[in-house]
Write a structure and sequence with these properties.
Blueprint lengths: L13 H11 L6 E2 H7 L5 H11 L8 E2 L10 H11 L3 E3 L5 E3 L1 H4 L4
Parallel strand pairs: 1-2
Antiparallel strand pairs: 3-4
Length: 109
């Protein structure tokens, strides 16, 4: 599918599709980088990570997490604030490290 000369770019490119999936994740829920890719029929979890690195500031970036349930690297504290606001289920270690409870919080589009 292509855009005409005056229309917007075709929405079928990978980045646009990643953005659409991320925007569909409801508050209090998460998807892993791999599950976002799988929702697109892809295995390109690193590609999802690249899209999030470039476009994530304008998205609910805290809802896309590592497969371990941990928040995006180097954004843990800000993500924790958002998880608390949204009521995202969390699990805590004895050392005070948190991760998202994937069993309860995973979004499956």
């Amino acid at each position: 599918m292509s855009a005409d000369a005056e229309g917007p770019p075709a929405p079928d490119d990978f980045a646009s599709r990643v953005i659409a999936v991320v925007e569909s994740i409801p508050p209090g829920h998460v998807m892993t980088y791999g599950s976002v890719a799988a929702a697109l029929g892809s295995r390109a979890s690193r590609g999802v990570g690249q899209v999030m690195a470039y476009a994530g500031a304008d998205l609910p970036w805290w809802r896309v997490i590592r497969a371990s349930g941990h928040a995006p690297r180097d954004h843990e504290q800000r993500a924790l604030e958002m998880y608390r606001v949204e009521g995202t289920p969390l699990l805590w270690s004895r050392t005070g490290v948190f991760r998202v409870d994937l069993e309860r919080a995973s979004h499956r589009p």
